[in-house]
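Thread: "does anyone have the structure for this chain?"

Original post by V.I.:
We have the sequence but no experimental structure in hand. Need at least a predicted one for the grant figures.
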Amino acid sequence: MKGIIGKKIGMTSIFSPDGKQTSCTIIEAGPCTVTQVKTKDTDGYTALQLAYGDKNDKHSSKSEKGHFAKSSSSPKRFVKEFRDFSLEKNIGESITVDIFAEGDKVDVVGTSKGKGFQGVVKRHGFSGVGQQSHGQHDRQRAPGSIGNSSDASRVFKGMRMAGRMGGTRVKARSLKVVKIFPDKNFILVSGSVPGHNGSIVLIQK
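Reply from O.Q.:
Generated one for you, tokens below.
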């Protein structure tokens, strides 16, 4: 496994030589600093801890400054651990977008956009009851019956109902790496990526 921390920039389109359009998401991936190397002898498993995004010293605690000082790095905003990293890296080294190649299939993890409290039509795709008839004027987007008769006498867990939508961890699988710009630390992956523009995402392979 290998991965990197990045920031979602936005979406664009790439055209192939034959004119085929591919919708892509632009991600600014890295550079990330290796702030800790975990081994089976010391921690019971192997992993690399990567840090991304500069953080102001006055907003960092003394323990954070001491931790990043071990890797000769300034305090960072985001820290993520990647288990069983396939590349051999030492503490203090940088990981850039070069670890991926065009044509690779990657998974992108992010936090989906929060949409607040939503009804069943938006949240679960219910169609509602349809047209108004026989004095029925306020049920177009209602969920309908949710309970049982005297047999169960309760509402089962997991019933699709209105509630808070979005704001959860989502993994988009098997996205193709369309293009890489090493000089700008940009990576273009096919399709959409969870989260708003400027949100932090993890790219894994």
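V.I.: this helps a lot. The mean pLDDT is 90.
O.Q.: and The chain is about 10% helix and 40% strand.
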